[in-house]
Amino acid sequence: MLARIRKNDTVVVLSGKDKGKQGSVIEVFAQKGKVVVRGVAMYTKHRKARKSGEISSIKKEEGLLDLSKVMLVCHSCKKPSRMRTKRTAEKAIRICGRCQEAFD
After folding, report:
1. Rounded CA gap, 79 and 60, in Å?
2. 45-92: per-residue pLDDT in tens?
3. How many whole angstroms separate alpha carbon 5 and alpha carbon 70?
4. Do residues 102 and 93 make contact, with C-beta atoms less than 8 angstroms apart?
5. Closest residue by Cα to residue 83 from 67, 58, 103
6. Cα(21)–Cα(7) distance, rounded to whole angstroms?
7. Which DSSP category does 99 fall into?
8. Does domain 10-77 bear CATH number 2.40.50?
9. CA angle 49, 52, 56 (to 5 degrees)
10. What's the 3-state SS for 6-72?
11. Are 61 and 47 in contact (CB under 8 A)?
12. pTM, whole model, 2 decimals?
């Protein structure tokens, strides 16, 4: 089966508090149906110093988003679009639903 969204793809968020934001995919969890997008779904993580000499800190990290809440952005038409597949003799390729250009 061909993955709809892969690592390093540009996606746009469709719903939630970060609706409309674009970012690059950092990691995809296919079994969970989740994705991590750079700069989207940020949460704050407080780190307490455990040993002497360690420094307490507050870090911002990206959280998980559901795959259904993001849509792939086409490289050529620069718009969010549905992905279609086209089978060739060697392999299946991803194609933009709007302009019919290949993603790969």
Report:
1. 29
2. 999 999 999 999 999 999 999 999 999 999 899 999 998 999 888 888
3. 9
4. yes
5. 103
6. 17
7. T
8. no
9. 20
10. CCCCEEEECCCCCCCCEEEEEEEECCCCEEEECCCCEEEEEECCCCCCCCCEEEEEECEEEHHHEEE
11. no
12. 0.84
- Residue 41 is encoded by which pair of tokens? 């779904």
Backbone angles phi, psi at 102, to 5 degrees: -80, 140
Please tell me the distance from the alpha carbon of residue 79 to that of residue 29, in angstroms, as a whole number.
24
Residue 95 phi/psi, 5° resolution? -130, 140
Task: Please report, to the nearest 10 degrees, the dihedral formed by the alpha carbons of residues 33, 85, 20, 10 taken in order.
Answer: 90
Task: State the CB neighbour count (10 A cutoff) for residue 32.
Answer: 10
pLDDT tens, residue by residue, 5-40: 999 999 999 999 999 999 999 999 999 999 999 999
Q: Which of 6, 50, 54, 3 is nearest to 27 (CA)?
A: 6
80: helix, strand or coil: strand
From the centroid of its chain, how far is CA 56?
30
